[in-house]
Write a structure and sequence with these properties.
The chain is α+β, with helices and mostly antiparallel strands. It has helices at about 15-25, 30-40, 40-55, 80-85, 105-110, 165-180, 230-235, 255-275, 280-285; strands at about 5, 60, 65-70, 95-100, 120-130, 145-155, 185-190, 190-195, 200-210, 215-225, 295-300, 305-315, 320-325, 325-330, 335.
Length: about 350
């Protein structure tokens, strides 16, 4: 039986979270009515709206009409997510939790006791104060605009292909988004989701394992849902070309459906991966390869750089790059597309 715990907008939630929940219907609400509904002063409402903006949320404030959030800012709801899980996934998801603000969903799950063998626990946050991408990079995720999701999972023993799990999760994420009507999702080795060569999301996988016995992985996914034009431009100014699901055709802000689709696809993928390894996913990954045939630079862990043409992956999930010295394979590193040919 799946447990669902929702802490995003309960009576004990901070005022900014409760205001977010009130405004997320996309309609205007006067400061007076909000103050009455939330049992605070109008000044407190104004401060909470300012705090929401400071977190990156888009808050419209119009004289004589009040405040509103865009209609895409559906609050996360654990019960709705749980109800929308696939029939295959539901028995294997022991727990779904949502929170208003956490340091990092991955960190919280890394600190929890292991779930039972063959099961997972999902955790989502509206806002992360220390969200992390690969190599410690910061992940920008405003309330209502993103999916910050982590899923812990226990294997009976460390799978042989564990280093390629990020590729499996990428395939699963693509298939989940396809099922929601989002097309054109590409996969950039090792852990990025792209649309039209713009970054849609990223994957971060961390391992907890004993020298023998069960292994617990924590799969973190950050996905842009509805960032808004201003935030998209700010991210673009940092040198990253971003895109979000709404820009890519997702209707409305169906974040709970997106979350349920991702959790379901990941769970089903993990079951297949534990049984069959990477092999069933290789061709699917190759079909979505956003780098294939492009001139790339690979930066390794020791700041070494190799230039060549991306030629897909091998059966172990290593990146293949055609260089002047021949075909080289990489099991880790950062990859960028070169402007020169």
């Amino acid at each position: 039986m799946t447990d669902a715990s929702n802490h995003t907008a309960g009576a004990d939630a901070p005022l900014v979270a409760r205001l977010f929940a009130h405004l997320a219907d996309g309609e205007f609400h006067s400061g007076e009515s909000l103050a009455a509904d939330l049992a605070v002063t109008r000044s407190a409402i104004w401060k909470a709206a300012t705090a929401l903006r400071d977190l990156g949320a888009t808050v419209h404030a119009v004289r004589n009409r009040g405040y509103r959030l865009p209609g895409t800012a559906e609050p996360l709801n654990a019960a709705r997510i749980t109800a929308a899980l696939s029939d295959t996934a539901r028995p294997h998801v022991a727990r779904v939790d949502t929170a208003w603000s956490l340091g990092s969903t991955n960190t919280v799950l890394m600190d929890r006791p292991y779930p039972k063998l063959g099961t997972g626990e999902a955790l989502l946050a509206e806002y992360q104060t220390a969200g992390r991408g690969r190599r410690g990079r910061t992940w920008v995720a405003p309330p209502g605009g993103s999916i910050c999701l982590s899923l812990s999972w226990v294997f009976g023993e460390v799978p042989r292909d564990l280093g390629a799990l990020g590729l499996v999760i990428g395939v699963c994420a693509k298939e989940a988004l396809n099922g929601l009507g989002v097309v054109g999702v590409g996969l950039k080795w090792p852990n990025d989701l792209l649309i039209d060569d713009r970054k849609l999301g990223g994957i971060l996988i961390e391992l907890r394992a004993e020298s023998s016995g069960p292994a617990c992985v924590v799969i973190g996914v950050g996905l842009n849902v509805a960032l808004g034009a201003d935030l998209l431009e700010k991210i673009r100014a940092t040198g990253i070309a971003p895109i979000d699901l709404v820009s890519a055709g997702l209707k409305g802000g169906r974040r709970n459906q997106v979350a349920a689709g991702l959790i379901s696809a990941f769970t089903e993928g993990l079951l297949a991966f534990e049984r069959d390894g990477l092999k069933p996913f290789v061709q699917k990954w190759m079909d979505a390869d956003a780098l294939h045939g492009k001139p790339v630079t690979v930066t390794g862990s020791e700041a070494t750089t190799i230039k060549g043409i991306a030629r897909g992956i091998d059966l172990d999930g290593a990146l293949l790059v055609e260089t002047l010295q021949g075909l080289q394979r990489f099991i880790s590193g950062d990859v960028s597309v070169r402007a020169d040919t």
